[in-house]
Amino acid sequence: QVQLVESGGGLVQSGGSLRLSCAASGSIFGIYSMGWYRQAPGKQRELVARFSYDGTPNYADSVKGRFTISRDNAKKTVYLQMNSLKPEDTAVYYCNLARPSLNYWGLGTQVTVSS
Question: Is the pLDDT of residue 53 over 90?
Answer without folding.
Answer: no
